[in-house]
Amino acid sequence: MASISPNDLAAELLRACLADEPWPEEALEGLAAAALDPEPAAASRAASALFAGLVEPLADRFEPRLSKAYAALFSRVLARALGGLSAADLLARYERVRSVRAVGFEPARVFVLSRVTLGADIAVTSVLLDAARQRFPRAEIFFAGPQKNWELFERAPRLRHLPVSYPRLGTLAERLASFAKLRADLDAPDTLVLDPDSRITQLGLLPVCAAERHFLFESRAYGGESDASLTALAQDWARRVLGIEEAVPWMHPRFACQFGSQPVATVSLGVGENPAKRVEDPFEEELLALLSSRKGLVMVDAGAPGSDEEERVRRAAERAQARGARIGIHEGSFASFAAMIAASDFYAGYDSAGQHAAAAAGVPLVCVFRGYASERTVARWAPDGPAPAAIVRGEGKTAEAILTEIRRILV
Predict the structure, then answer these.
(1) Using one digit for the tens of pLDDT, what is the confidence trace for 115-173?
(2) 82 and 102 housed in the same domain
(3) Most CB contacts within 10 A, which of 32, 68, 122, 283?
(4) Hey, CA dihedral for 15, 21, 26, 30, is it positive or negative?
(5) How far is residue 143's CA from residue 410's CA, in Å, rounded to a whole number?
(6) Cβ-Cβ contacts under 8 Å for 141 (sequence gap 6 or more)
């Protein structure tokens, strides 16, 4: 298989999984070997194929059968990558931790794992954090995840941080580098691990503690064929596993923002490293101008310094400002922008973290979905909170058609 590229191997495996056919063993072996190549550039290319070309497409469809296919495939990859682990044992353990059962003991420490992406930590992980704090008032509650994700919750009472790094664009070895330390931190008889389908555990497969203390919310399969949001499914899981009836998504960053009496709309034009989510020009300029005409001041997040997002934001803002729109640009962490969203009157953006921040804060919003794998993808990632949330499906529509829908929503 050395002559076949990692991308082609991943595509062959994905095709077999989607067709419910046995996958070619040599393709899996070849892709796993490539992902463990000692040459960093080669390993990086193979990791991109493995995750972006296989793992993520299997997960993004939210089909229970594909969740099982992932576990069968990736348990083999992990056994090869880590050594000392059996694929059969990993798969058997996975079946135990994914089973929905009530927690029957009182832990001294509860670790809620980050999903690594910011929006998912608001929409899903925060629900489990809320449920854990209610269910175990005497336990130490830890959020285990990256610093930037922790910033969404760092002012919350009774919540501590266990730093865990996870390079989303790293090699396979880099993504697994935290496993040994994480297992040392979590594997104690008085701990409980609540896993919201975390990348840190490779979606529940890594044995970070004894199986009886590892509870996996298998979000890719939980809910079956329903159209429920991930937030609603996490709430249902918390009822069944922790006995908590009212767990909600929330944020508590250290930042605070006040705009006074002036109406303010917040906007994020981020696409979460997926350019397929973006609507072509002049949509972004027109959106900013439209919101300014209806809402007054518009605050748009600049995105990461030097990124394509920042370039797009500044270009759209300058063009809208030239037409008289009042546009401000937020520069800083996502947590500080989340505080700004919470203080605003309206939010608009693509399918990204901002919509979940708005939903958790009770801010009315409109979200444009494009480049999604299936209709169930839209249903699962729909923002779910107490305020009105309008979804505009942008697939196959022009920028003007999408803007027309948004104008109707703003009336």
Answers:
(1) 999 999 999 999 999 999 999 999 999 999 999 999 999 999 999 999 999 999 999 99
(2) no
(3) 122
(4) positive
(5) 37
(6) 109, 110, 112, 129, 132, 133, 158, 159, 160
Closest-CA residue to 118 (of 142, 152, 156, 155): 152
Q: Mapping DSSP to helix (H, G, I), strand (E, B) and coil, where does residue 391 land?
A: strand
For residue 136, how many other CB atoms are within 10 A of its CB? 19
Answer whether residue 248 is part of any domain. no
Statement: the pTM of the whole predicted model exceeds 0.90 = yes
* Domain endpoint, select from 57, 86, 115: 86
48 domain residue, yes or no: yes
Q: Per-residue DSSP letters for 173-197? A: HHHTTTHHHHHHHH-STTEEEEESS
Strands, E assignment, 160-276: 160-163, 191-195, 214-216, 264-268
Does residue 1 contact residue 27 with C-beta atoms inside 8 Å?
yes
Q: Which of 189, 211, 242 is the last residue of a domain?
A: 242
382 shares a domain with 282: yes
d(CA 385, CA 269): 21
Domain that holds residue 152: 98-242
pLDDT, one tens digit per residue, over 63-110 is: 999 999 999 999 999 999 998 899 999 999 999 999 999 999 999 999
Q: Residue count of the chain, please give it.
A: 411
